[in-house]
Amino acid sequence: MLKNYVIISAILGGSGVALGAFGAHGLQKITEDEKILHGFQTAVQYQMYHALALLAVALLSGKFPGQWIKRAGYFFIAGVILFSGSLYLLTFLKLQESGAVKWVGPITPVGGIGFILGWLCILLAVFRSK
């Protein structure tokens, strides 16, 4: 299971670098809208932060084994998918001037809650360790 966290962390980290490069070079050629660019940059930043956090979870699992550390990983993965994924989708929808923006926007905070829960699970893993 925790080996999978390392694999997923590497995928999230590598794709985060690629998306960051696209945002810095390609997306700026498509739009100059600062709100769109900022939203995309935020998605990349949080994806990268939590790719590293997921790697830390895998490394900490030996010191703090148990369900709480595993749950932290689940929440970080869900957070990246929901938070960063929804911001990436919002970027695309805004560029397309789609009305679906109003339906995707409320997903972002749910991903943020996933991040918070992941960090709380790490805290619980430490407190509950023997």
Set down the secondary structure blueprint.
Layout: H1 2-30, H2 34-60, H3 67-95, H4 101-104, H5 107-127
Helix pairs in contact: 1-2, 1-3, 2-3, 3-5
Question: What would you note in describing this structure?
Answer:
The protein has 130 residues and is mostly helical. The chain has one domain. It has 5 helices and no strands. The protein has helices spanning 2-30, 34-60, 67-95, 101-104, 107-127. Helix 1 (2-30) packs antiparallel against helix 2 (34-60), helix 2 (34-60) runs antiparallel to helix 3 (67-95) and helix 3 packs antiparallel against helix 5. The radius of gyration is 16 Å and the shape is elongated.
Q: What is the percentage of strand-forming residues? A: under 5%
Number of distinct helices: 5
Give the fraction of residues assigned to helices: over 70%
Distance between the ends: 22 Å
Question: In terms of per-residue confidence, which ranges show pLDDT below 50 for 5 or more consecutive residues?
Answer: none
Summarize the structure in short:
The chain is mainly alpha-helical. It has five helices and no strands.
List the keywords.
elongated; mainly alpha; 130 residues; single chain
